[in-house]
Write a structure and sequence with these properties.
The chain is mainly alpha-helical. The chain is built from three helices and no strands. It is flat and about 55 Å long.
Length: 72
């Protein structure tokens, strides 16, 4: 149990320290991405991936429902 708590504490500390390191240069990175227009490309790619995942889940759900109906 003690080993699990020490690992959990190590993970939490490492996540918090990495967050602090990224927070120092957040303004310049944000301005750079918006200024060059690359942020819109990143958003478009993220939306495309999410839409693709939702379509895939919808199709898999339909197939599973059809297989459940055939099995009864």
């Amino acid at each position: 149990m003690n080993k699990i708590l020490s690992r959990l504490l190590l993970i939490v500390v490492s996540l918090l320290s990495s967050n602090l390191l990224f927070a120092q240069g957040a303004d310049s990175f944000d301005e750079t991405m918006r200024g060059s227009g690359k942020i819109y490309v990143v958003v478009a790619i993220c939306l495309t991936i999410l839409i693709g995942l939702f379509i895939y889940l919808f199709l898999v759900d339909r197939k599973i429902s059809r297989l459940e109906k055939e099995g009864k």
